[in-house]
Every structure is written in C-alpha cells, then in structure tokens.
Design brief:
This protein has 278 residues and is an alpha+beta fold. It has a domain at 4-161: Jelly Rolls (Sandwich), CATH 2.60.120.10. Helices cover 41% and strands 21% of the residues. The chain is built from 11 helices and 12 strands. The chain has helices spanning 22-25, 106-109, 130-139, 144-161, 167-177, 183-190, 194-205, 209-227, 231-240, 246-257, 261-266; strands spanning 4-10, 13-18, 28-36, 42-45, 52-56, 61-63, 67-69, 72-75, 82-85, 93-100, 120-122, 275-277. The protein is globular. The two termini are 33 Å apart.
C-alpha cells in the first residue's frame, strides 16, 4: 500500500488522501476519506473531466434545493460548476470517495459514461449491488485511514475483474496536451473520424472532444490566473490559450467557475484546481 497522507484542514476537520500507483493509478487519481466539521461555508467544484464516487456516512448530501443523497453517489463529468453548501461549526461529515482520472471510471462503472454527463445519481443506477457492498464494508470501519486502505483494495479488485482498456485515458491525455488544436487535427492524430472519436469519448469518458478541450483549457487558465499580477498578463493568457478575445475568455471563465478571472485571482486559491473553498 502506497503512502496515505493526513491533511489537517482545521483542528476539527481531517482528510486522509491516497494517490494510487501501478494499474489502479492509471485510472484513479485519488482515494480519500474525511471526518469532522468543515471550516468553510461552500465548496465549489469546477469542471476538470473527472468522475467522482462518494460514500457518505453522515447527514445526507444536498445538491441543489430538492436533491438529497444519503449513502453512495456517482457524479458524471460536468461542463459547469457545482456548489455544495455547508453549515460551518454545526454539522459533522464522515465520507470516503474516489476521484477518477478523466476517462478512468468506465472499468469500474461498466456503463456508458455519457449517460451521466452533468448528473449525480445513486449507484443503484448501475444495475448491480457492488457499490452497496462496498458501502456496507466501509461503514463497519471506524477510522478514516483504514477506510482509505480498504477502499483502495476493493477498487483494485474491481479493476482486475473488469476490462481495463487504456484507450480512453490515452485519448484524454492527447486532448489535455493539445487543448488548443482543432478537432480536425485531433482526428488526424488519432486516425479516427470525428464521429467515431466522439462516440468513443462519450462512452468511455462521458463527453465529446470539444467539451474536454474547453475543460482542459479552463484548467490551464485557472493555473495561469493564480500567477498573474496585472492586466497585461490577463491579455497574454487570453491569446496564449487560444481564446478569441479577452471578453470571450472572461465570459467562459465565469460560466465554468462562477467568478471572473480577477475574482479568482484575488482569493489566492491554494487547493486543487477542481475545488474552490469559500
């Protein structure tokens, strides 16, 4: 078992994080468990092409005004930000979960991922009881570090039993490296027609090539914005990343993160790109 890192977000809220290596690491970027009272009022999840699997052992998770998830949920690839609201210093959270790499969830879910784009579902939607069994086993464990260890073992077992074709992650990595090039150039590099490329990406990764390009370009912009100091650098980011003009860049950035590049820069966000704590 590779290293598990304990992150003390605050005296009352702890995270345990594991970044798998080897075969599991080709598909999963992080396995985590948390416990305690979140010290922030809101968690904003920004598109990054990933899927998320969450096992919840405390109060129901609220998404939107009417949707509550109690036990196990799966979040598809999103093209827009999602917001989770918390009650600081009031509600304790006990959770565990998996963050899949873009294109990495299919061997575990065994369902066309395009069906879950911009949605969150209970894992019963997959038509089997595997993740219900995982939930029950994790629920019998009383500490977060042990939950991470057991969850990693069960995910590795699941991967061994199902197909682990690396085609989707390879296509995703190609798009990540070249988010600015045209779809026509991508089809030339892969040898697939645009229709076939998008069919493959939809089934195994949850979104078409253009959608992933937009996400990865945003992720690059978020990293660059955190380092910028003046308006000139904002202009450089606009054109370096292939946006039509600065107005288009600002509009797309706000649409996908819920804030302008300048507002994001001012909070000096130190977490991973995909999560903003407010």
């Amino acid at each position: 078992m590779e290293k598990i890192t304990q992150i003390k977000v605050s005296p009352r809220f702890h995270f345990f994080v594991h970044h798998p290596e080897g075969a599991l690491g080709d598909f999963v970027s992080m396995i985590w468990a948390s416990e305690g009272v979140p010290p922030f009022a809101q968690e904003r999840i920004v598109p990054d092409g990933a899927n998320i699997l969450v096992f919840n052992f405390s109060n129901p998770i609220a998404l939107g005004s009417n949707t509550l998830f109690t036990n196990t949920l799966f979040a598809g690839v999103t093209s827009e930000y999602k917001t989770l609201d918390y009650q600081p210093d009031q509600v304790s959270h006990v959770q565990a979960g998996v963050v899949f790499k873009p294109g990495g969830a299919y061997p575990f879910i065994q369902q066309p991922l395009i069906e879950f784009k911009n949605t969150v579902v209970e894992t019963s939607a997959f038509g089997d009881c595997y993740f219900d069994a995982v939930y029950e086993q994790l629920g019998e464990i009383r500490d977060s570090k042990s939950r991470v260890i057991r969850l990693a073992q069960m995910m590795a077992d699941r991967l061994k039993k199902n197909s682990s074709d690396t085609l989707a992650p390879q296509l995703i990595n190609l798009i990540r490296r070249h988010p600015e090039i045209s779809i026509e150039a991508l089809t030339q590099k892969t040898g697939y027609s645009q229709q076939h490329l998008n069919r493959l990406l939809g089934k195994f990764a949850g979104m078409n090539a253009k959608g992933f390009q937009k996400i990865f370009r945003l992720n690059q912009a978020m990293q660059a914005v955190q380092k910028m100091d003046d308006e000139e650098i904002l202009t450089n980011i606009t054109y370096d990343l292939g946006y039509f003009d600065q107005a288009h860049f600002i509009h797309e950035f706000k649409e996908m993160t819920g804030m302008t590049p300048r507002a994001y820069q001012l909070i000096r966000h130190s977490g991973p790109n995909r999560i903003i704590f407010l």
